[in-house]
């Protein structure tokens, strides 16, 4: 029952974000749309941003569809792009909200997490220092997130397959080169 209520609240927020920005949506709006009281919302989420985080985390895991590793990281990134494009208005309206940093943090956290997995797989012999590993993760995550944010800013018009291909071409072997 708890999960169904969370899903209903998430669906309501996503529906509203199809036609207005996050700044113009209240907990009361979401609760009324789901036909629950505000306390029910607060039983599940601290605020709208917590609900937004829950949507990002739960739906991205489903979109990726597999465990991330060095062999498939670009396919997983492509799946994230596809998920975002399927929810275009949602992401554009979150991006254009006062709380744009929510989407930046979400994208950064997910990229950093998956890069940690990929780099750890590549560095099984522990050649990289922890500082070097973290630097590589942050550097690549910021590059990817910046690219995604630019894509959203421009209305998600560019073919994400092309973007992913370009990112893959730039990164192909660069992590391994850093380790030498």
At the fold tier of CATH, the topology name of the largest domain is Tetracycline Repressor, domain 2
The assigned CATH architecture of the largest domain is: Orthogonal Bundle
Number of helices: 10
Give the oligomer, counting copies of the same chain as homo and different chains as hetero: single chain
Shape: elongated
Total DSSP E strands: 0
Uncertain parts: none
The level of helicity is over 70%
Gist?
The chain has 180 residues and is an all-alpha fold.
SSE order and pairing:
Blueprint: H1 2-16, H2 27-34, H3 38-44, H4 48-64, H5 73-86, H6 88-95, H7 100-122, H8 130-153, H9 160-171, H10 174-179
Helix pairs in contact: 1-2, 1-4, 4-5, 5-9, 7-8
Provide a descriptive summary of the structure in words.
74% of the residues lie in helices and 0% in strands. The chain is mainly α and 180 residues long. The chain folds into two domains: 43 residues, Homeodomain-like (Arc Repressor Mutant, subunit A, Orthogonal Bundle), CATH 1.10.10.60; 131 residues, Tetracycline Repressor, domain 2 (Orthogonal Bundle), CATH 1.10.357.
């Amino acid at each position: 029952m708890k999960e169904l209520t969370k899903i209903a609240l998430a669906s309501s927020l996503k529906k509203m974000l199809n036609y207005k920005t996050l700044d113009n949506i209240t907990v009361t709006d979401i609760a009324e749309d789901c036909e629950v009281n505000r306390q029910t919302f607060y039983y599940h989420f601290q605020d709208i941003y917590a609900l937004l985080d829950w949507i990002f985390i739960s739906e991205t895991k489903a979109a990726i569809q597999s465990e991330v590793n060095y062999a498939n990281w670009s396919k997983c990134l492509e799946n994230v792009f596809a998920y975002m494009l399927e929810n275009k208005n949602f992401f554009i309206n979150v991006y254009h909200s006062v709380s744009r940093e929510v989407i930046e943090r979400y994208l950064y956290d997910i990229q950093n997490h998956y890069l940690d997995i990929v780099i750890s797989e590549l560095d099984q012999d522990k050649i990289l220092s922890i500082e070097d590993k973290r630097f590589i993760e942050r550097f690549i995550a910021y590059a990817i997130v910046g690219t995604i944010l630019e894509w959203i800013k421009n209305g998600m018009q560019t073919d994400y397959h092309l973007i992913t291909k370009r990112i893959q071409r730039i990164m192909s072997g660069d992590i391994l080169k850093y380790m030498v």
